[in-house]
Amino acid sequence: LTAKEVNIQELKQHIRNDQYDQMFLINCILSQFDIDNGLDRYVSKQCKICRGRVVDENNNNLYCPNPSCQLGQSDMNETTIVQTFDLQVDISDHTGTMEKVRLSDDVMKKWMNCTVEEFLKYPDDEKTVLKWKYLLERFKFGIQVKKHPKDEKQTTIRIVRQFVQDF
Asked: Where is the signal peptide (predicted)?
């Protein structure tokens, strides 16, 4: 897998030019990392079978919307659902800011050194300490750019890996 090293401005240009299904490397800071309020902002529920996002209809009527999933429209419970980190962050460099970049579950688990379930038990002040450990720090990220699977007009930008800094 090859990746092109870019800055924020160049990454935005690649997206404007409809250059998808590519990997990019970017040196940046984490300029927005909100993990200390609003549970629904950083945790999602996924189907254990197909990994599709579970739909919550009418408060706790959970089902998998994927028509090809074995579970289909059946009611789901804690044995068929996996909680994952699903956080949107902002990244910035000297050329600008990219907002609403998804931070992958794998990267977040590595940073937090715990599962989602363990993290949810942390008190808010501990989450704030963790937030400031990463906020405004410099990183080298592997960024994946894809078309949104359900809406071709939308783009999904995801941090899939953190690399050792070389700057």
From this structure: none
3-state secondary structure of 65: coil
The strand pair at 61-63 and 22-32 is best described as: unpaired
Give the C-alpha separation, 21 to 145, whole Å. Answer: 6
pTM of the predicted structure, to 2 decimals: 0.86
Q: What is the pLDDT of residues 100-144, one digit of tens each?
A: 999 999 999 999 999 999 998 999 899 999 999 999 999 999 999
Q: How many residues does the chain have?
A: 167
| Residue 131 near residue 38 (C-beta atoms within 8 A) | no
Domains of the chain (ranges plus CATH)? 4-39+87-163 (2.40.50.140), 43-85 (no CATH)
